Structures are given as C-alpha cells and as structure tokens.
Amino acid sequence: MPTFAITEGRNHIVLLEGDGAGVFGGTVDAAKVGLGGASTDRINGITVLNGARDCIREDVRVGNCTGYAVYDSGNEDFSAPPSSNNRRLTTFNAQIHLEAQAADGSVYEDCTQEDGDGDIPCLSWVHPLLGSRNISYRGCRGRGATPAGWDVAANIAPLDTITVEDCHYALTNEGGVALAVPAGNLLVRGLRVSRSTFSAPGGIGASLFNVEGSFVQTEFDGATAMEVTGGDVECTGCTAIGQRPVAGAAAAIGVKTSNATVRWNGGASAYRDRRRRARSSATSVCRPWSGFRLCRWQRGPVSHRKRSGRSFRRWMAVTHMPICFRQ
Asked: Rounded to an integer, what distance in angstroms lies between the CA atom of residue 237 and that of residue 176?
C-alpha cells in the first residue's frame, strides 16, 4: 500500500468516500500527529465517510493515532449512515481503536487491539455510539491498559442491535471497566453477547446502564463482576467472578443490580481473593461441592435466606443464583 499524505487540512490518513472502497494489507501509521494538541488536531487512521456503504478494510495494521484508528464517520441526522466490513485488523497506540459513529451494518471480524508505548492515552478499544445499529463483532480481542475496554455510548440517539460473538477482552491495569454502557445516555436496545469474556481486575467486568439485551455463555471478571442499573438483561450459562482487589479491604461482588430486571439462567457466580496466592487458582465455575462454600442465595432485591441439606440444594438449583465465597 502506498504512503498517504494528509492534504487540505483533512485529519484522516486514509479516507474512503465511495461505496465499496477498500484498503487491503499494509500499515497505516499516523505518526502521532497532533499529540498534545487540541481535539481538532487529532489524526484518524482509516475513515469511512458518511454515506459510503460496504467499504472494506482487510489485513491492515493501524496505529499511532491521536484520534480514531478505524472510524466509520456518520452524521447526527442519520440520513446516510456509513457501513464497513473489517477483517483481521490490528490496531495499536490510539485514543480509540474501533469507532462506529452513526453507522448501520458494519461488521468487525478477527480484529485485535493492542497497547502502544503509552504516550497516546487510550480511552477505549471499541466505541459504538451516536445511534449506530446492526453492528457486529466476531472473534475480536484486546488486552492492555485502558479505562474502558468497550464504551457502548447511546448518545444523541439510541443504539440498536449490537452483536458480540466470541470476543475476549482483558484490562491489565487495576480498575477500569471491561464492558461499559455508561450512565447518562439513551437506551441500548438489542445488545446480544455470546461466548465472550470481559475481565477487569480490581475494576468492573461489565457495567450496564439502561440496557435491553442478553448474554449467553459469557464470563465477567472484576472486583464487581457485573452491575446492571435500569433496563432488562437476561444471562444464560454465564459466569460472574468477583475478585477482591490486591490492596484494601473492599468486598468482591458477583452480580449487583439497581432498578433493573436481571434473569440469571444457569451459570455461576464465584469469589476469588487476589491477595492470597493459594486461593488464586480457584475454579471459575461455582458448583455446590467444587471447593466453594455456598454462603448466601439471593431471591429478589432484599430477601435473603439460608437452608441446608437436600432441600437447600433443590431450592437453589431451581430458583436461585449463587453468591459464593471460597473456603
């Protein structure tokens, strides 16, 4: 791929303006242009312009972007949403790696987000926002330091039908949120996640505000594994691992809800003390007799009960989700 120059004051290294335009192979390096400057000085990597449909990015490395590495740039009026097909992209050292703004129908497959040298502060790896809809992520992964692995922001307009399959994200920094749907925005409708993992040691695995969606065979890991505020969420065969932080005396929480409906079908919730090496190898699936002491079972927002023996096992297996503590 040839070297692209920034001309006429445009802040994109590569700009795809027509239907079906594509970039195949090579590296797009924004050379950290605009670092330390104003927000208008930021440089994006490969941008699909508003109105361009079915553009392609394939087998490309994109990095050193003070703005967005991979950017679908739609307008707030949603009159001509862009769309793109993205396969086997690697992004690194960018403020935001995958940005779908007012897009419709974009697909990201087997994309990897990597750390840089730390001089460009990363805000998030994946950032659908501004009324995007029908956005799919399959086989994507990210590992490194960032305050939010995913920042799903329904600002300006609700998000609709965001699908995540076989995606795995882990924060290496203490704190942060692996999957964030932040407060103060509009509804995220149809968030569908399956066979994925979201890990934030000392932070929150998933923090969901005003979400209607479902999770299947997905693992959440953090000081608080999963918190849901408002909305309606169904979890099937999922695992929530609450890890006590290395420092301090804060409690670990499996699943926390507030003014929300959360249905937990099967799966498990477990506790791990990261301060004690002997306990760090605890199994991530909590079963009644797998080395975890079942200490509390919760039904509804306030009712807590304790039972023992056969009646306890039958009672919890049918109607209750565990909050478990390692012996």
From this structure: 25
Cβ neighbourhood burial of 308 (10 Å; 0-12, 13-18, 19+): exposed
Residues 196-218: pLDDT tens digits?
Answer: 999 998 899 999 999 999 999 99
Please give the model's pTM, rounded to 2 decimal places. 0.81
Residue 202 to residue 29: CA distance in whole angstroms: 33
Strand order in the sheet with 303-305: 303-305, 292-299, 321-326
Burial class (CB within 10 angstroms; exposed 0-12, middle 13-18, buried 19+) of 180: buried
Helix (H, G, I), strand (E, B) or coil at 311: helix
CA distance 237 to 296: 20
pLDDT at 37: 86
Q: Note the pLDDT tens digit of each residue in 14-56.
A: 999 999 999 999 999 999 999 988 888 899 999 999 999 999 9
Query: Do the Cβ atoms of 257 and 224 come closer than 8 Å?
Result: no
Place of tokens 């799903």: 152
Q: Which position has the token pair 């750390």?
A: 115
